[in-house]
Amino acid sequence: MAHKASAAVPVKGSKLMVIGGASLVGSATVDEMLARGAEQVIIFDNLSFGGQPNIAHLEGNPKVKVVQGDILKLHQLLAATEGVDAIVHLAAYMTLNFDRDPWGGIDVNVRGVQNVLEACRSNKVKKLVFSSSNAVYGYGPGVKGDLVEGVPFHSEGAPPAAILYGASKIMGEQLCRDAFRKHGQDYVVLRFSTVYGERQHYRAANALYIVETHDAIKRGERPKVIGDGSETKHFVYVGDLARACCMAIEAPSTDVAVNTSGPEPITTLQLVNLVAELSGRPDLQAELVEPDPTKVRLTSGGAFEIVHKAAKDAIGWEPQVTMREGLGRLLAWRDAEAKRNA
Amino acid sequence: MAHKASAAVPVKGSKLMVIGGASLVGSATVDEMLARGAEQVIIFDNLSFGGQPNIAHLEGNPKVKVVQGDILKLHQLLAATEGVDAIVHLAAYMTLNFDRDPWGGIDVNVRGVQNVLEACRSNKVKKLVFSSSNAVYGYGPGVKGDLVEGVPFHSEGAPPAAILYGASKIMGEQLCRDAFRKHGQDYVVLRFSTVYGERQHYRAANALYIVETHDAIKRGERPKVIGDGSETKHFVYVGDLARACCMAIEAPSTDVAVNTSGPEPITTLQLVNLVAELSGRPDLQAELVEPDPTKVRLTSGGAFEIVHKAAKDAIGWEPQVTMREGLGRLLAWRDAEAKRNA
C-alpha cells in the first residue's frame, strides 16, 4: 500500500499515551512529553509492579490522566486509546519475571503487543513507539563486537527465561512490521539497552549491579561481582530514553528498529567500582564471587558495544548522559529516597 | 531437581498421542507407532487443515482413537491426555499461514505448546516430543555452512511471517526446557527440516517446489524456479521423521534439541529437474523466473547443510531415504491420487 511521506507526529499539542507509564522509563517519558508541550498524556498502567510512587509527582496535573488498565484486556485499551495521536508502549515482563512466570510474560510481551496494535488500528493512532530490547541479539559467547541492527539472535547456553524474553521482543517487533505492511501502521522500534536512572527498581537483572552494589556499600560491605568482572554491560540513562521515545514520535521515520544505548559500554568490575567511588567509598573495592546457580544470570561472552548510529540516522537521537553523570543522579535519588523514608 | 536415569518410554504396549495426528507427519507417525506395537494411538487434531483423508485408512482400527479437539482448549487436552504415556506434538502454523493470520499462528504455536505442557504436567505424561523446525536458524544470507544446533537465529530481511514462525518455534523449545527445569518434564525437540512425502499438501513454502513443479509437468508446462536456482533447500522424507518421533520417545535422552534432516541438501534447480526426470519429462527443464513480490518466500543465502549428527548421538536416528527415492514415492502417490479422483 502507499505510505505517507512523513510519519511525524508533533508531541506539542498532541494527545499521547504511555502504556506502562508508571514505570521507570514510562514516568520519565511522561515528564519529557509534558516538558515538550503535550496537550494530554494518558498513563495506561496496571500498576502491578507498584509504580504509583513513580507518578505521584504528577497528581493533580490537568494534562495527565491515569488509566489503571491491563493490555490483556482489549476493551480497556480500545476505550483508553480513543482520540490518541501516538502511543509509547513500554509494558513488559523482563527476564527475571519471565523466569518466575513464563506464561504471564508471553501474555504481556506477545499478546499485549497484539492488543496494542489492534487498538492502534481501531482508533487510527498515527504512530506507535515500541520498546524492544538489545535482548534481540541474545546471550552468551556469540554476542560480541559491534552489535548493529542486523546481528542475529544468539541463545546457546542461555536460561529459558532469557531466550523467551528475547524471542518475545523479536515477535513484538515483527508484529509491528506486519501491521505496517498489512494496514500502514506507522511505528518505530527502540531497542533499549539496560536502563538505569532515578526511580530505579530491582526487576532488571543487569541493573542489579548498580542497586545491589549501592545497598552493600550503604551497609559498609564490599560489593560483589560475579565472575572475573570482565563482562561487558551497555547501559542507557533513563532520561536519554525518554528523549528517544519523544523523538521517535516526532521523527518522519517509520517501519524501522534502532538501538538506543548509552555513550559507551562498561565492564561489571568498572561499574561496581564506579558506584563505590560515587558513593564516597572507593575503599570498598569489588569482591569477585562465583555465580549462584539458582539465580538467572545474563552472561556476555566477549567484549561488545551496542552501536546507536542508526538511531541518529532514523530519529536524530544520541545519548547525552555519561555513566558517571547518570549514576551520580541515580545514587543521589536513592539517598534522598532513603532519607525521606527514614 | 533430581532427574531419572532414563527418559525412555517404549512405544510397544504404550498409550500414545499424536497432536496434529491427521497431518502429513502426524499420519505417518501414527502408522509407525502402530507398526511398532503401540497399545493405543490417540489422534488429537482439530482437522482444520482438512486432514481427514490422511487418516481414512485407519478407520475401524481398534487401536486408534480420533479426538477432534483443539490445543487452544485446555480442557479438551486435559480430558484427552488422561493415561497417555507419551505425546508427539506436531500441530502448528507454518509460515504461509502465519502470513495470512499471525494471531492464529501465535495462538497455536505458542499458547498451544503451553497448553500441551500443562496437560503433560497435569496427567503425568512421561515424555513429550515437540516438533520444532530448522526455522530456528532463520533466513537470509546469514544462514550458510553447517547448521548445527548452536547456530543463532538470523532474520535480517526476512518477511515478518517467517520471523514470527521461527521465533514461535524458539519459544516452544524454551517452554519445554523451562518445564524440564521447573518440574522435570522429559522431552525431546526435533528440529524438522522441510518435510515431503506421501500425503503432501500445499501449505509449506519450500515444498511448493515439489508439488507445483509436478503440477506444471502434468499440464505439459516447464516448471518454474525462482531466481537462479542455486538456493539450497534441505528436505527430509516423512517416513524418516515418523521413525524419528518414535525413536525420540524410546530414547533414554531428555532435555535435548536435535536436527532431523534428510541425507543431503539440494539446490532448487536440481530439485525441480529431478522432479521433471522422475515424472518422465526430463525434457521439461526448469524456467528461471523473477520472484513474485506479493508472495512470501523463504530465501537462503549461501549453500548450507542441516547437520543431523546430534540426532544420531541423542536418539540413534539417521535419515534413510534419499531424495530420489522419497520423491519417487511422493510422485507415485500423487499419480495414484489423481487417478482415484479422476
UniProtKB/TrEMBL annotation, chains A, B:
Protein family (similarity comment): Belongs to the NAD(P)-dependent epimerase/dehydratase family.
Protein name: NAD-dependent epimerase/dehydratase family protein
Family annotation (Gene3D superfamilies): NAD(P)-binding Rossmann-like Domain, UDP-galactose 4-epimerase, domain 1
Coiled coil (UniProt feature): none
Pathway note: Bacterial outer membrane biogenesis; LPS O-antigen biosynthesis
InterPro entries: Epimerase_deHydtase, NAD(P)-bd_dom_sf
Chain ranges of the NAD-dependent epimerase/dehydratase domain: 17-255
Pfam families: Epimerase (PF01370)
